[in-house]
Design goal:
Length: about 400
């Protein structure tokens, strides 16, 4: 079975595309039980039995042939050491490798695990649901099989592009024409991907700040949110805008699961706002303004759904090229220009926010309990300050993920 890669094409050649989640499991666990639960959970999702095929003409698709590329490891390194090491190692998606789990602490009271997943294996919610399946399998529960659910780009003819993209429909049309005439145009392969990783990570490393927000502080902020009729994401955005001190371009990941499915695949879209904190007004007034800007985009289906067909309207190999421009391993006049416009070079988004909110999974699974959960989103090619939020029970964790030159 084949599934075309369309709206998630920008994830294919991104050199910083790994979603991380770390948990602590309370209960008497052992290596065999953890290994068995991991294997059972991977078998429950169709996408984890696939590989990514990249044809010579640039066509890319998932191919399901029951591959077993997912791995679980046991080691004594810290989670920071593991992530710092692993983010520089390319996932072998051509061999069906989308997910790794590292058990880095284990004693009679439980264990800590960090899960790393390539974005082509799914979005943030996908990994949350995988962890839920893993915990169910650990407690002996039988799992249901989950098929792939991908977001289609839809028809790409001129009329449909104009209808969906409005006045910006000319952008992909113009750049596709330029790319087809560019003497450096080519279809890229996995060797190009290896080269990009090598060049980029030779000069970069990521930093992660993790903050556990105490329940009483969360309750205080939620009280303000209720009083001001705003969301928690708007509150936190406003706080960061006040800290930043200038007009900022802020992106938000938005769940696109219209039917509420719990499948593993990339079912996220995005919106963005631009705002400068006004120091002549109160924090409340600024926060209300930020919420209004967010709500305007979220309630406008065309704005909320714009980015998916927009990116899919470009020639797939041109989307690959702008990621390689970001990595520093490829250069052409066309890809450089487009990468600059879309924020894949120096002028990236100032801040990107993914709030998984209160996780819709249980804390307890038989004799086991998830008593800690932290979500670390990837620093995608067009991002700079990447914020991740998650709440499990009364534990709210904020992470700030950035990449710096070394």
């Amino acid at each position: 079975m084949r599934y075309m890669i369309e709206t998630e094409r920008s994830d294919l050649f991104d050199v910083s595309i790994v979603i991380a989640m770390r948990v602590h499991i309370k209960g008497n666990v052992n290596k065999d039980g953890l290994r068995s639960a991991f294997e059972e959970a991977t078998k429950a999702y169709e996408i984890l039995g696939c590989r990514v095929v990249l044809e010579e003409d640039g066509t890319a698709y998932y191919e399901n042939e029951n591959f077993e590329g997912q791995k679980v490891f046991f080691e004594e390194s810290s989670w920071r050491q593991i992530l710092k090491r692993e983010e520089k190692i390319r996932f072998k998606i051509e061999e069906g490798e989308f997910l790794k789990a590292f058990c880095y602490e284990m004693n009679e009271e439980g264990c800590s695990i960090i899960f790393l997943m390539h974005h082509l294996g799914g979005d943030g919610k996908s990994l949350v649901y995988f962890i839920e399946s893993f915990m169910k399998a650990l407690s002996g529960e039988k799992l249901e099989y989950s098929n792939i659910r991908l977001i289609s780009a839809g028809p790409l003819d001129d009329k449909s592009q104009r209808d969906r993209l409005g006045p910006l429909a000319f952008v992909p049309k113009s750049y596709n024409k330029k790319w087809n005439k560019d003497e450096r145009k080519k279809s890229f392969n996995y060797s190009d991907m290896d080269k990009a990783y090598e060049i980029y990570w030779k000069e970069h490393e990521s930093t992660i700040d993790e903050y556990i927000i105490k329940p009483e502080k969360v309750n205080m902020m939620l009280g303000k949110c209720k009083e001001w009729n705003i969301g928690f994401t708007a509150y936190i955005t406003t706080a960061f805008l006040r800290w930043l001190g200038r007009k900022a371009d802020v992106g938000y990941a938005v769940d696109y699961r219209k039917d509420g499915n719990r499948c593993m695949s990339n079912q996220a879209t995005g919106i963005s706002i631009k705002y400068a904190y006004n120091y002549n007004k109160s924090f409340q007034e600024n926060a209300i303004k930020v919420q209004k800007l967010m709500t305007k985009k979220l309630e406008d289906d065309q704005s909320k759904e714009f980015i998916l067909p927009f990116m899919a309207s470009f020639e797939p190999t041109l989307v690959d090229a702008i990621n390689l421009e970001h990595a520093g391993s490829f250069r052409s006049k066309t890809s450089k220009s487009l990468a600059t416009i879309l924020g894949y070079r120096k002028k990236t988004k100032d801040m990107s926010v993914t709030n998984l909110t209160k996780l819709d999974i249980p804390e307890e699974y038989g004799e086991y309990k998830l008593d800690f959960f932290s979500f670390i989103p990837p620093v995608i090619s067009y991002g700079k300050n990447i914020l991740g939020f998650s709440t499990l029970g009364d534990c709210t964790v904020l992470t700030l993920h950035r990449i710096k030159k070394v």
